[in-house]
Amino acid sequence: MSTTSRRYAALAGVTAAAVAIGIAEPVAVLTGPRSAPLVAVGGVVVDAVPESLKQLAIDIFGTADKIALLVGTALLLGAFAALLGVLAVRRLALGLAGIAAFAAVGVAAALTRAGADAADALPSLVGGGLGALVLWLLIAGPLELDPWPWSPPTPTTVPAAPSESAPGEGVDPESRRRFLTGAGVLLGTATVAGLGGRWLAGRRGVSAAREAIRLPAPVAPAPAVPAGADLSLAQLAPYVTPNFGFYRIDTALVVPQVDPATWRLRIHGQVRNERTYTYADLLARPLVERYVTLACVSNEVGGDLIGNARWLGVPLRELLDEVQPEEDADQVVGRSVDGWTCGTPTAALRDGRDALLAVGMNGEPLPVEHGFPVRMVVPGLYGYVSACKWVTELELTRFVDFDAYWVPRGWSVQGPIKTQSRIDTPRSRNRLTAGPVTVAGVAWAQHRGIRRVEVRVDGGPWQEAQLAPSVSVDTWVQWSWRWDATPGEHRLQVRATDTTGETQTERTQGVVPDGATGWHTVTVTVR
Ligand SMILES: Nc1nc2c(c(=O)[nH]1)N[C@H]1C(S)=C(S)[C@@H](COP(=O)(O)O)O[C@H]1N2
Ligand SMILES: [Mo]
What we know:
It is a single chain. By secondary structure, the protein is an alpha+beta fold. The chain folds into 3 domains: 3-151 and 168-204, no CATH class; 243-409, Sulfite Oxidase, Chain A, domain 2, CATH 3.90.420; 420-526, Immunoglobulin-like (Sandwich), CATH 2.60.40.650. It contains 11 helices and 19 strands. The strands form 4 sheets. Strands 2-1-10-5-6 form a 5-stranded mixed β-sheet. Strands 3, 4, 7, 8 and 9 form a 5-stranded antiparallel β-sheet that branches. Helix 5 packs antiparallel against helix 6. Residues 249, 296-298, 382-384 line the site of molybdenum atom (MO). Molybdenum atom (MO) binds at residues 249, 296-298, 382-384.
C-alpha cells in the first residue's frame, strides 16, 4: 500500500473511532458519565495499574494525573484506530472486527464498574455500531475513494506492469473531495457530540441541588480559632484551608454526582440492628462542627497533600451505637458510590474522638469533589483508611475478612498519621538578604497534637521554634522561628515532636506503604 493510501486509510480509521467515542458521550448523558467508554476503560486502568506506575503518574502530573490518563488513552486509541483503518482497506472485515473488539472492551469496562447495570453497555454499543458504519462508509461505502490509491503490488513471478502514476494519483478528484469532506464532517460531528455530551452531563450534575441546601446550625459549634493561630505570612499555608484550595485525591475519573434526595447510607454487616439513613435524617440530628486536618498518605515530606477545614456532621460514634456492632467487628468499611472502599478501625470511631459523617465543609455543603453529599472525616488517620467521599455504605466487618481498596495495592492496613512538619517560608532556592528572616511552616500529628517544633541551620544545634495556638490536637499548628541569616548558601531543617514525646524520625521513607518519613529540608541563598 502506498504512503498516500495509508494516510487516507488511517484518516478513515481515526474518523470511525472519533465518531464511536464522540457519539457515546451524549448516550452516556442518559446512562451516567461513568458508562462512557473512555471513562469506563480509564477507570479500569486506574484500578488495575501497579501502584508504582500510579505513584509515578502522580509524581509527574500531580493532581492533573487524571487528565493525563484520559489524554494518553485517547492518543493510544488514535494510533490503534489508524492501524485499523489500514487493515480495513486490505480487508474491511478485519477493520470491523477491530471496532467490535474495542466496543466489547468498552462494554466490559462499563459493566464491571461498581453499581453498573445493563444500560451502561449502551454508550459503547451505540458508539461501536456507528463507528463501524463510518468505517464502512469511508472504506467500502458511498464515501469510498475511487479507486483506492494502491501502489502496484510487488510482483514475484510476473514482471511488473509499468507504474503509470505516482502513489495517490489516479484517484478520481470528485471522490477524493467526497471522502475528505465526509471525513471532515464526521470528525466535526464527533467532536461536537463529544464535547456537547460532556457539557450536558455537567449540567445534569448535582451543583443545583447542592446550592439549594441550607445546612442547619450545629448544636456543638467548632471552637473559635484562637487569635494568632494564623501567622498570615506570605508563602505560609493559611491555618484554615479554603475549599477551593483544598487538595483533592481520589480514584474517580468523573466526579460522582450523588443526588441528596435519593442518597442513602446503609450501615450493615456485623451489626445487631441494621439501619438506613437519608440525607434529611442526618440534617435532622444534632450536628457538631469540628476543625480537622486531613492528610494524604501519598504526601511526600514537604508536600502539600494536606489541608485543614471546619467540618459539620454527625458523630459516627452515635450512628454506630444505634446499629450495635458485634464485638469482633474491628473494621468499618466505608464504601463510596463508585465502589471505592476504606477500612477504618471500629475503635477509632468509638473512642471519643470527633470522627464525623460530614455534610459541611467550611460553612458550605461539601463541595462535589470533596464527597457531596456525605463523607467520612476521622482525626488522626490518613484519608485512604478513613475519609470515604460520596459514602453510601458502612459495613461492619473484620480486618481479617476484608481488604479495602488500597490494601491489595501495597498500602498498609492501618494508616495512623505520622508526626510531620514542613517549612513553608522561605522556599527552596529563595534568595534572601542577610539579617533577620522569619522561618515558618506547619506541623501536624493529628489527634496526638504537637508539643514542640525545632529548626536547625546547616546541621547545627536544634533551636526551638515558637508554636502558634491551635484549635485542638486534631489540627495542624503553625510555627515560626527568627533566623539571623548570614551570607552564603544555607540548609534549613525542621522536626516536630508530638505530645506522646515521639520526635519525627530522620530516617527517610517513601510514601508506600504507610506514609513518608524524614525531615523537610530547604536550601536558600543569603546575600
Ligand atoms: N470515594 C473515595 N473517597 C476517597 C478517596 C477515593 O479515592 N474515593 N480517596 C481518599 C484519600 S486517599 C484521601 S487522602 C482523601 C482526600 O480527600 P479530599 O479529596 O477531600 O482532600 O479522600 C479519601 N476518600
Ligand atoms: Mo490519600
